[in-house]
Amino acid sequence: MMSNATEVLLSKFMTKLLRHTPEQYGLILDPEDGSCTLDDLLSVLVKAPRWSGVTVGEIQHVVTSCEKQRFEIEGDRIKARYGHSHTKITYEPGTPPPTLYHGTHAGILSAILEEGLQSMGRQYVHLSEGTHFASLAGSRRGKLILLTVDTISAGQMGVSFYFAGNEVWLADSIPPSCLNVYNP
Length: 184
Ligand code: HQG
Fold this sequence. Notes:
The protein has six helices and twelve strands. By secondary structure, it is α+β, with helices and mostly antiparallel strands. The strands form four sheets. Strands 4-9-10-7 form a four-stranded antiparallel sheet. A three-stranded antiparallel sheet has the order 1-3-2.
């Protein structure tokens, strides 16, 4: 059984492989959904000295125990559900609830209210149906600010929304007029 700290380290490495720099490790992800087989992931992981003894069971445990449900296993394949910075993953457009949330921090609030939400270093802007996921995201870098996104206005302005599973929605960008600071 892995310790929590080891699990976090493995999760971080899996994030790197499945979201950011797979090619650096010789891992080939499906260009459509960003998935690979568990076997392929395992064979890349075990080449790193730190993870030479890792098992599929331990990978599965990282996937199921993650509060944010970062990864998804379907059959013999695994993928990161969101967060990618490498080649653009395709999602089906969908209709989100009228309000979604984005968590950010106080230092960049004025820039966001002026320019809207941009995807910055990732492929998409990350939004959520509830405040919990957004709060986890926004409290990573400073004083948490929660924004509401009016998805109906955004839709009327041509924004498409994509469901990434487990309450997470993605969009290319959100115009400033669709944003409000959330004060519960
Ligand atoms: C901000 C993590 C200036 C945006 C998290 C955010 C999430 C702007 C930062 C997931 C801006 C980008 C995604 C603008 C947006 N001017 N700053 N116009 N528009 N920003 O990490 O949403 O643990 O790429 O507010 O918890 O923070 O990795 O996006 O602060 O769930 O699974 O630019 O990744 O999940 O930062 O995080 P990020 P995010 P994991």
